[in-house]
Amino acid sequence: MYFYNVMKKIYYNKREIIFCQPSEVPVDADAVYMCENTQQMIKAFRIFTADETVNNLYLVSENNPKEMRKMFAKEFKVVKAGGGLVKNPEGKFLFIFRNGKWDLPKGKRDSKEEPMEQTATREVQEETGLQNPIIEYKLSSTYHFALNTESLILKKCYWYAMKSDTVAKLIPQTEEGIDQVLWADENQIAEFMKNTYKSIEDVWKNYKQ
Q: Is-contact 128 109, C-beta < 8 A?
């Protein structure tokens, strides 16, 4: 199923920042800030990052959450990446085990001129050894913060639903911290979701919608 989302949620380690309107804030929200300008958002963000007891921060706009998200993103260096959820002829899906967690193959774009579809396909090939994955459609985008030396970077990953015509032997890219590559059925994936990143949970949920 085709699913394309604007930036509504950003992950910070295992925590999350959610942009929304007042009616969308749940009763169990950890922290809620009404924000209509960049200064208010950055102040709320700094409070959030300093307090690890706050698992979710809701940045709320009465008027225009979409514009608020754009303003927020402009305050950070944005790095774009591409990745894939690949299905084989047996109905199994390609997963990797990297740095102690189950993950999907993904990586940074080589240059601003490189199409994101090319980035995603290349990263699947390099990280898993799978040849000729075929993109079927754009699945979703996820966002998370990452530390680069002393800077905070906003990473945007474009995810694609892909297919493979083969179940050939896979080769993990060990220099990228990948220990295993395998084809998993949905029962295995349910277990993987207990030890993965929230962004990967989102990708899987979007696929299953």
A: no
